[in-house]
Specification:
It catalyses: L-threonylcarbamoyladenylate + adenosine(37) in tRNA = N(6)-L-threonylcarbamoyladenosine(37) in tRNA + AMP + H(+). One of its GO terms (biological process) is tRNA threonylcarbamoyladenosine modification. Keywords: Acyltransferase, Cytoplasm, Iron, Metal-binding, Transferase, tRNA processing. The chain is an alpha/beta fold and about 325 residues long. Helix content is about 40%, strand content about 20%. The chain contains nine helices and ten strands. The chain has helices spanning about 40-65, 85-100, 110-115, 165-175, 180-190, 210-225, 230-260, 275-290, 305-320, and strands at about 1-5, 10-20, 20-30, 75-80, 105-110, 130-135, 140-150, 150-155, 265-270, 295. A five-stranded mixed beta sheet has the order 3-2-1-4-5, with helices on both faces. Helix 1 packs parallel to helix 2, helix 5 (about 180-190) crosses helix 7 (about 230-260) and helix 7 runs parallel beside helix 8. The chain is globular. It starts with a strand and ends in a 17-residue tail after the last helix. The structure holds adenosine-5'-triphosphate (ATP) and fe (iii) ion.
Length: about 325
């Protein structure tokens, strides 16, 4: 079974071809234009998707070494995401499926981040049901109880900023470029995580909050630079290490609580922030300390990509779960 996956929810135009469980191609056109603005500009994203989508899909088919007539179905991201961006992928997928007279499969982007764990990839184990999935990205922070492929329940999520946003906004305060997550991570590994203390937010249950942290960091930097204008550059590694220590602490507190409450010890992560060295280390500690088994997908399947859309397409294909031509994009689609 050959399925084409199309992803256009945010600022990456992506297409992938999957043959049964294996990814044959995974193409991404990243929109560099947003870097200059320090964040994604929806209007520009939509326009770039329109320019990218045809060449990206062509390239995905070419790399997979198949003709479009060999495809069995087209899977696309229906939501959540930016409306203008989603519309480009949705309309493209609909017309391609209609032209080829093959089924159309709609995919929830947040389910796809989780189901990326089911791509056949050497050296990567698939989590057994039930497992806990923590999706940590630029737009989301969720803990999901996954009982089966399409039986998922969000048991915790952020009430304000996403964790990736916390990284990016902290980075902006420190004068680091966008996205700042990888840069903070790199410097954090050279610094002392206990050099500066930022208080963790008090949010009951399994929900997260990150907006207070950003404010705390802003005030702290303002106060310190008033005394010493070179404070940031002299202490950048320690500042980054302390921010990272606080963020990872917040994530781990909730993950531990979720595992305790549900009794589930299989823990999977996904989303761009799962590249972070601190969270990876913390998960390893969870394995030895709490008897967890942890799952981190291959890097290219953690950030926004179409391979994860294609695997969901394949799983839905097996269940004959298709959608109609009158399907519409949904910016706030829920799990
Ligand atoms: P969403 O997937 O929710 O729509 P998105 O597309 O912005 O949002 P991703 O592409 O999954 O999210 O991830 C990007 C985010 O990951 C950015 O906020 C970036 O700073 C962060 N990030 C990437 N690498 C690291 C790292 N090593 N440490 C911390 N954060 C990181
Ligand atoms: Fe995403």
């Amino acid at each position: 079974i050959y399925i084409l996956g199309i992803e256009s929810s945010c600022d990456d135009t992506a297409a992938a071809v999957i043959h049964n469980g294996k990814i044959l191609s995974n193409v991404i056109a990243n929109q560099k234009i947003h870097e200059a603005y320090g964040g994604v500009v929806p209007e520009l994203a939509s326009r770039a998707h329109q320019q990218n989508i045809v060449p990206v899909v062509d390239q995905a088919l070419k790399k997979a070494n198949i003709a479009k007539e060999q495809l069995h179905a087209i899977a696309f991201t229906r939501g959540p995401g930016l409306m203008g961006s989603l519309l480009v992928g949705t309309s493209f997928a609909k017309s391609l499926a209609m032209g080829l007279n093959i089924p159309l499969i709609d995919v929830n982007h947040m389910q796809a981040h989780i189901l990326a764990h089911f791509i056949d990839e050497e050296g990567f184990n698939k989590p057994p049901f039930p497992f806990l999935a923590m999706t940590i990205s630029g737009g989301h922070t969720q803990i999901v109880k996954v009982s089966n492929y399409f039986d998922m329940e969000v048991i915790g999520e952020t009430i304000d900023d996403a964790v990736g946003e916390a990284y990016d906004k902290s980075g902006k305060i420190l004068g680091l470029g966008y996205p700042a997550g990888p840069q903070i991570d790199k410097r954090a590994q050279l610094g002392n995580p206990k050099a500066f203390k930022f208080t963790k937010p008090k949010v009951a249950g399994l929900n997260f909050s990150f907006s207070g942290l950003k404010t705390a960091i802003l005030y702290f930097i303002q106060k310190e630079t008033a005394n010493n204008p070179n404070f940031v550059e002299e202490n950048i590694n320690d500042i980054c290490a302390s921010i990272q220590y606080t963020i990872i602490g917040i994530l781990m507190d909730k993950l531990k609580l979720a595992s305790k409450q549900t009794g589930i010890k299989h823990i999977a992560i996904g989303g761009g922030v799962s590249a972070n060295s601190g969270i990876r280390q913390a998960l390893k500690t969870g394995e030895s300390k709490f008897g967890w088994t942890t799952y981190v997908p291959k890097f290219e399947f953690t950030t926004d990509n179409a391979a994860m859309i294609a695997i969901v397409g394949y799983l839905k294909f097996l269940e004959n779960d298709f959608t109609e031509q009158d399907v519409t994009a949904s910016a706030r689609l829920k799990i």
